[in-house]
Amino acid sequence: AEATLRLSNGGAIPVLGLGVWQAADGPETERAVEWALEIGYRLIDTAQAYRNEASVGRAIRSSGIPREDIFLTTKFYPGNKDPRAEAEKSLERLGTDYLDMYLIHWPQSGPTWAWPGMEASVEAGLTKGIGISNFSAAEVQELLKTSQIQPAVNQIQFSPFEYRAALVAACEDAGIVAQAYSPLGTGRHLGDPVVARIAAATDHTPAQVLIRWAVQKGLSVIPKSTHRERIEENFAVFDFELDAEAVSALDALDTTGQTDEALGQKWWS
Ligand code: A2P
């Protein structure tokens, strides 16, 4: 069985998923999702802002895999006003009748205003779980003061170079699963010499080393690729372990001082 993490809503989220940020709507996204499901991925991560939900939905339906065996995440685009109405539109585009996880894509106009609509989406049966993305530790704390349903997930940019240990610890303390997007630094980290050295020493690839590092930090991880051989490579990270020396060498690549501030986190404002 696939490795999963327990969620505060009672569910379980796969450790490894396919992200489709920057995958074009149409055959590119459709094929990537079909391949991922064939290879064994059971977590697919899309968003309203990616404009490829229809392709994700087509690929899920054509896979023949029962819907309940797949963990499907989409994200509320916070330039809109009504999370519940937007969830209904997402479901229509995805051609399915529920989401597994529905995230606020980023805390535009503050961390709390959209949450009641997210909670209403759960109560209406549109999604099993709700969470957040790109929230800082302070924004998580603010949301927790007013939420009736706790966020189950905080999806954040996370790699050895963007290693917000304090944010991950804050999520863990609050019972929130942290999920890593851009674990490869959108591809920019694959050529790093430290990563290359550890890849050679472990007989794996740089992408596998970066993904494995995030898995060992306890996160769910969603590398993006639209190439079949890379989708396959990125999934093959459960047959090796990074030792303490390798982990600390990777930890030392951090450029953020393990805080949010250095990241330019608020790219959306
Ligand atoms: P592509 O989609 O053309 O395969 P991240 O997950 O950090 O956002 O990184 C995604 C980027 O890294 C994409 O440009 C993707 O390209 C590339 N990529 C994903 N997996 C691999 C891999 N195993 N080897 C090389 N490049 C990869």
UniProtKB/TrEMBL annotation:
Keyword set includes Oxidoreductase: yes
Pfam families recorded: Aldo_ket_red
Marked site: Lowers pKa of active site Tyr: 75
Protein name as catalogued: Aldo/keto reductase
PROSITE patterns: ALDOKETO_REDUCTASE_1, ALDOKETO_REDUCTASE_2, ALDOKETO_REDUCTASE_3
Active site, per annotation: 50 (proton donor)
InterPro entries: AKR (IPR020471), Aldo/ket_reductase_CS (IPR018170), NAD(P)_OxRdtase_dom_sf (IPR036812), NADP_OxRdtase_dom (IPR023210)
GO molecular function: oxidoreductase activity, acting on the CH-OH group of donors, NAD or NADP as acceptor
Family in the record: Belongs to the aldo/keto reductase family.
Binding sites annotated in the UniProt record for substrate: 105
Highest taxon in the source lineage: Bacteria
Keyword Oxidoreductase belongs to the record: yes
Organism: Kribbella pittospori
UniProt KW keywords: NADP, Oxidoreductase
Domain NADP-dependent oxidoreductase, first and last residues per copy: 16-254
